[in-house]
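Hey L., structure's done. Input below.
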Amino acid sequence: MKISIIIPILNEAATISKLLSHLIHAASSKDTIKEIIVVDGGSTDESKEVIQGFAKEQETTIKLVFSEKGRAKQMNKGSAEASADILYFLHADSFPPKNYDQHIIQEINKGNEAGCFRMKFDSNHWWLRFLGWLTQFESKRCRGGDQSQFITTSLFEEINGYDESYVVYEDNDLVDRLFAIDKFVIIPEYVITSARRYREIGVWRLQYHFLNIHMRRWLGASSEDLYRYYKEKVVS
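Output:
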């Protein structure tokens, strides 16, 4: 059983080689990683050159593919290029635990076809530590894309992958659908993810907007409404 790792990126030249190196060295075996697929959504920095240069020096297959901007579109594009039995979707600033491949395969062998890890931020801010603490609970309300997502290729195809109408909230939408069919497990190991957006925007400001997006979705807001709010309040 092998894993295809899929990483959507946009202007990650400064950090992507660190993540790729981590994925290779933190795996329990090179034999379990079929390929690492980096899906570029239109980077304007040196991401392409950095990835291609790094790939030349590795035994592990690293593919660089291109897609329209948008994580849902990028991850679906990566899945279409993947050839392994298991898909592992990972944000470019999230680092999975040691032997992550073994943990994932063990869950698949138990019959758990999809799930994620717990998560910690690389920050000592008490609120961000609290958010990480919440990820131990088996609730879809405590899930997020920073925790990464593994899923069998067959199940991913069965549920039609990521909904590309979502420019934000795409990870939560997928988790919602998996919870609805009782196909989700949380591995009790930790992904370490960057708090860079919180540092850039401010912990309380960004958290307020994220909670607002979740509340709007629970109250029935469309994917277009969520993106409009995100673009106005978070990106601008």
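The chain has two domains: 3-194, 196-236. Residues 196-236 form one domain.

-- N.
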